[in-house]
Amino acid sequence: MFVGHACLAFAVAALGADRLRWSRERALGVAALAALFATLPDVDVVYGLSGLVAPAAGAGPVPVESFWAAGNRVHRGVTHALPVAAVVTAAVWLGGRSGTPSRAAGAALLAGLVPVVAALGGGLAGAVTALFVCCVGAVVVLARRRGVAPRVLAGATFVGLFTHPFGDLLTGEPPALLYPFEATLVAERVVLSADPTLHLLGAFGVELATVWLALAAYFRIAGERPTAHVDRRAVLGVAYAGAALALPAPTLEVSYHFVFSVLAVGVVGVAPPSPDRLRAWRAGVTALAAVSLAAVAYAAVYLTVG
């Protein structure tokens, strides 16, 4: 859901700004900021790199398995918590203001998260929080240099951080939404189907839907139609239906062969390099349409044969 997090936040912020009748540049600016903030909680997977250097016990010989085995020790923890998102949003609002006392208060509030989390969750959680805080601070500095208003910056932070954890409810273990409190908001992931393959296909479909939603939001603000950028080559994605007969049925636990191969279908959208913006959009939207058709075709065959 890495791409989906950014796309969902972009769409929510863009459509909200459009409803407020903001200018095109301002609406797309806050949407891009929200998308950037929505990616930050996943900096906690950086610890997974330790699994590549020293594979986790029992993780298996596949490098990606070692990566997730190590990364999951801290993944979807403190950086995905709603109380932490609230504190960070307040800190960003203060840090985005013009007065020195406000900026100092924002920086102190943001930095104060590190020792608090370290005291509550240990050194590893504190180190992940420190990295998260540094990334947030870097985005705030960038936004301030571009003259983003404090309320707009805080709004983008809120949308990005508060939408992110809910995008993780379909895959893996649910985030610790109420950390550091003991209460559990969601104990188990949302299951779309008892059939593990259909659940995976459903989750993949949700991911694709968020990308389409982000595109629709962008083109709405730009005054264009996404369908105008789809080339007929996208229909070739339907040929991927045969993969349902040739490849083992994927699940959340073993999905790489499906995900990588279905995404490779997007190559039908590739066009010769060109500085022309319209051609670049045509290539991207065509690739997305091809992958979407491929996923639908695969699901149709799986339902028919399986």
Number of strands: 0
What is the N-to-C succession of helices and strands? HHHHHHHHHHHH
Number of domain modules: 2
CA-CA gap between termini? 26 Å
By helix and strand content, what is the structural category? mainly alpha
User: What Rg is obtained from the alpha carbons, in whole angstroms?
Assistant: 21 Å
Mean pLDDT: 88
* Low-pLDDT regions: none
Biggest sheet statistics: none
For the structure shown, list the relevant keywords.
306 residues; 2 domains
Explain what this protein looks like in three dimensions:
The protein contains twelve helices and no strands. It is an all-alpha fold and 306 residues long. The protein has two domains: 2-168, no CATH class; 196-305, no CATH class. Helix 1 packs antiparallel against helix 2 (24-39), helix 5 runs antiparallel to helix 6 (100-121) and helix 6 packs antiparallel against helix 7 (123-145).
Summarize the entry for a quick read.
This protein is mainly alpha-helical and 306 residues long.
What is the strand and helix layout of this fold?
Blueprint: H1 2-19, H2 24-39, H3 49-53, H4 63-71, H5 82-95, H6 100-121, H7 123-145, H8 150-163, H9 196-222, H10 243-246, H11 256-264, H12 277-305
Helix pairs in contact: 1-2, 1-8, 1-9, 2-8, 5-6, 5-8, 6-7, 9-12
